[in-house]
Design brief:
Layout (H helix, E strand, L loop, with lengths): L10 E3 H13 L5 H6 L13 E3 H15 L4 H5 L9 H8 L4 H5 L2 H4 L7 E8 L2 E8 L6 H21 L8 E3 L7 H11 L3 E2 L5 E6 L12 H37 L5 H7 L4 H10 L4 H19 L4 H7 L5 H12 L3 H8 L7
């Protein structure tokens, strides 16, 4: 699916990725080849608060869904949530006195976990509502991401309050039902009715849960961690802006048939060396962003234009069509021609 007409997915923490890897490992699934295909690497001891590209994170989840053929993968990954899954936000919530105090930190600091979506909190009489809007757009990934976030919330709240019986009154999911036979897995885990194809994703619970005491309150530690979180938020905001600007500059160049790092750097008022250093600090590189934008544009050209495949290869800066074919098949598992046949309603002569 083409991402060129949707907002960039920003970044995600290594910790968010590790939750999926732990869940897969529990099932005996080797995620190393999937991580490689997604352009990710967990082999060199990255810290949990390091960032990965959101598009690559989404691609890894897509590959994991395809490899497992599991309609409730996201639900099951919620079983593997840990305080570290939420980076410093997890440790802030651990040090809060009540569940309500912990919840108030989700909205201002959820970006530390990743740019996967946005949370809202509402009080309505004797009930509270936690509502989550998913930013991920791949139709295979989105329902699993929604399940993961909601399942992780509920599991983590139970852990924080040291009460495995803590349950919502209801959960609403915008995703379609995975099938009647699998719906019971949601009710058994969450202990409440679950509504599928709802208007949004929300957890509805008794307002009294806000006063539920947590196991390890530590106001002094919480204040220290919050200062650290504010510092990380400022850095992430600047980093995401840089990656977004570089992606857009590369995209505009490729649409004109060129792809030069020195031109992109000049547009951002820095040298190519400075640009590469700044991207490296964010765990990225010019080449990785170029590859990402090339793939996105290739899918878009194949789906929505009649442009011949050799012309697409030339437009994207490949020296010969064979190189484009090899790269595209490595990324998607199919040739450009097969991809066009499957995804496009606009036939072309290749």
């Amino acid at each position: 699916m083409s991402m060129t007409d949707t907002p960039p997915l920003g970044t995600a923490s290594i910790a968010a990725l590790r939750q999926y890897v732990r869940a897969a490992g529990h099932k005996g699934i080797d995620t190393t080849p999937l991580l490689t295909r997604a352009g990710l690497d967990l082999s060199s001891g990255h810290s949990d608060d390091e960032r990965i590209d959101g598009e690559r994170f989404q691609r890894f989840i897509r590959l994991l869904v395809e490899a497992t053929d599991n309609p409730i993968l996201g639900l099951e990954t919620g079983d593997f949530v840990q305080p570290g899954s939420y980076t410093v936000l997890g440790y802030i919530t651990m040090s809060c006195a009540t569940l309500g105090e912990a919840i108030q930190y989700i909205i201002p600091y959820e970006k530390l976990v990743g740019d996967m979506g946005l949370t809202r909190f509402l009080l309505d009489g004797d009930r509270m509502h936690l509502i989550w809007q998913c930013a991920y757009n791949d139709p295979w990934v989105r329902p699993q991401m929604i399940d993961n976030v909601i399942a992780s919330w509920i599991q983590y709240a139970r852990w924080l309050s040291d009460d495995a019986d803590t349950s919502p009154e209801a959960v609403h999911l915008e995703r379609r039902s995975p099938g009647a036979a699998l719906e019971s897995a949601y009710r058994e885990r969450w202990g409440c009715p679950v509504v599928f194809e709802a208007a949004d994703n929300r957890v509805i619970a008794s307002r009294t849960l806000l006063e539920r005491p947590l196991r390890q309150p530590d106001p002094g530690l919480r204040r220290t961690l919050e200062a650290h979180a504010r510092s990380q938020m400022a850095a992430i905001t600047a980093d995401t802006a840089l990656l977004t600007r570089v992606r857009e500059a590369i995209r505009q160049q490729l649409l004109q048939g060129v792809s030069r790092q020195d031109i992109v750097a000049g547009q951002l008022h820095m040298t190519a060396r400075t640009l590469q250093r700044k991207l490296s600090q964010e765990g990225s590189s010019y080449q990785s962003l170029l590859d990402e934008v090339r793939q996105s544009l290739a899918e878009d050209f194949l789906c929505h234009t009649r442009m011949a495949i050799p012309d697409i290869a030339l437009r994207l800066g490949f020296s010969e069509p064979a190189s484009f074919h090899r790269r595209f098949k490595r990324n998607t598992g199919v040739t450009p021609g097969d991809y066009r046949t499957t995804h496009s309603h606009t036939p072309a002569t290749d």
